[in-house]
Write a structure and sequence with these properties.
Number of helices: 21
Order of helices and strands: HHHHHHHHHHHHEEHHHHHHHHH
Shape: elongated
Strand order of the largest sheet: 1-2
Number of domains: 3
Largest sheet: 2 strands, antiparallel
Helix content: 55-70%
Radius of gyration: 30 Å
Number of strands: 2
Strand content: under 5%
């Protein structure tokens, strides 16, 4: 396989969503590649190269199509591979890469246009959803177990319910990130693990007398005080008791005669209250389609925490990049001459690559011709170089030793990944390349 696992790939890989990365690191994508390799009689590395190109080009599907056309396939086989590549290796994650491809339904629409057999691709997509949910729940259970070890369930329950009775508006408006994160963890833990907490929390909200706004609101034919309890009842009266969605909430805040009486500050408070009530009342269904680490039982500004997570991810990316950035400047220059699928120009034209290869060989021949000097000059050069032979050997030994350290480090990193994952393939290729240079 060509050396395509470079700095650019590592950076691009961590720009796609966590769930998309999970797919490309899972056996689902690995098995799909093995299956396609057998079906089209292609080397698996050729198919991995297509995935690498997809990621490196920010999901430029036209590049993938052109690359497939350049493969040694008949017209019908090339078309079928294009369909299968989309179906098995892009369609399952279209929802998670919609920022890259422009729409969460682009791939499914294209597959339907091509009259693809959707059920076999849909099965992969459903398997991925199941694996993601399973992974998320495992992570959540681990976090809840750690939380449980640090609190007394009864004390936590009493504390949270008392806080909701006396300070619910403060909960919904505080800007303290630490307080918000702590309470949010406590709510998630209690909703999962403490019997009757959900019913008790709903009851507390439906009887809370804190005020949102100054003017009375209409509850049916009556005018009532704008208490938390009355706002919840009024909303249900107007919009029904089903789990509200973002559109319903936005329309209510914009069109309801009650909500029109509020200024922007109190509208935001009312919005937070209704989301809080919904998330408790319909838990855990209210958290569907959200990864556990982003669960918010009550809405709060998580910008600072997001920055912290970004910093962690950036550090993780840097660590991963060290795996594939072990060469010095001389090696990088040499890499530019190699047949790489992901150069800076995203060139996928095989003929162009062949021309570069020929040019490279011709340069080598020219360099050899340059050494056709008369014997005296050659002798002088040999004498001149002789003095540095031992020193050069020591440098070369150090260089080889350093490369071996890099290889050993890469082999350690390799053990962290599944054999069918992209990371495993990338690191394996880098190890092979370094070993070839040492020989």
């Amino acid at each position: 396989m060509t050396n395509i696992e470079d700095k650019t790939f590592t950076e691009k890989f961590y720009e796609i969503s966590e769930d998309a990365r999970f797919f490309y690191s899972s056996e689902l994508s690995g098995d799909a590649i093995v299956s396609l390799s057998k079906k089209y009689k292609l080397d698996e590395n050729e198919l991995y190269s297509l995935v690498f190109l997809l990621v490196n080009s920010n999901f430029n599907l036209e590049l993938i199509k052109q690359r497939i056309k350049s493969m040694n396939l008949t017209g019908i086989s090339a078309k079928n591979l294009w369909i299968d590549f989309l179906g098995y290796l892009v369609f399952p994650i279209e929802e998670y890469v919609k920022d890259k491809i422009g729409s969460s339904s682009l791939i499914s629409s294209e597959l339907k246009r091509l009259k693809a057999e959707m059920p076999k691709y849909q099965e992969i997509k459903e398997d991925l959803v199941y694996l993601i949910e399973e992974k998320n729940m495992e992570e959540l259970e681990k976090a809840l177990k750690e939380f449980e070890e640090s609190v007394d369930p009864k004390e936590e329950r009493d504390y949270v319910l008392d806080l909701m009775k006396s300070n619910v508006l403060e909960i919904l408006s505080t800007e303290s990130l630490d307080a918000n994160l702590s309470l949010n963890r406590g709510l998630i833990y209690l909703l999962f693990n403490v019997d009757d907490f959900q019913d008790d929390a709903i009851s507390v909200l439906r009887n809370n007398q804190d005020l949102i706004g100054k003017e009375n609101i209409k509850l049916g034919d009556r005018e009532v005080a704008p208490t938390v309890a009355n706002w919840i009842k009024a909303f249900i009266k107007e919009e029904g008791s089903d789990m509200l969605d973002d559109l319903t909430l936005a329309k209510y805040l914009d069109r309801s005669e009650n909500a029109k009486k509020l200024d922007d500050k109190h509208k935001k408070l009312l919005s937070s209250l209704l989301i809080f009530y919904k998330n408790i009342n319909f838990f855990p269904d209210s958290m569907k389609n959200t990864i556990p680490e982003n669960w918010q039982i009550f809405p709060f500004d998580n910008e600072d925490n997001a920055k912290f997570e970004d910093a962690l991810n950036e550090n993780k990316k840097k660590n991963e990049q060290q795996v594939v950035e072990q060469e010095n400047e001389e090696d990088e220059n040499e890499n530019e001459k190699s047949d790489t699928a992901f150069d800076n120009s995203n060139n996928i034209d095989e003929d162009d690559n062949q021309e570069e290869y020929v040019d490279f060989k011709e340069e080598d021949n020219n360099e050899e011709n340059d050494f056709d000097e008369d014997q005296e000059i050659k002798k002088e050069k040999r004498e001149e170089n002789k003095e540095n032979v031992n020193f050069s050997k020591e440098i070369e030994k150090d260089k080889i030793s350093e490369k071996q350290k890099n290889i050993n480090h890469l082999k350690e990193e390799l053990e962290k990944y599944e054999p069918m994952s992209l990371e495993y393939k990338a690191i394996s290729s880098e190890i092979k390349r370094l070993e070839d240079r040492n020989n």
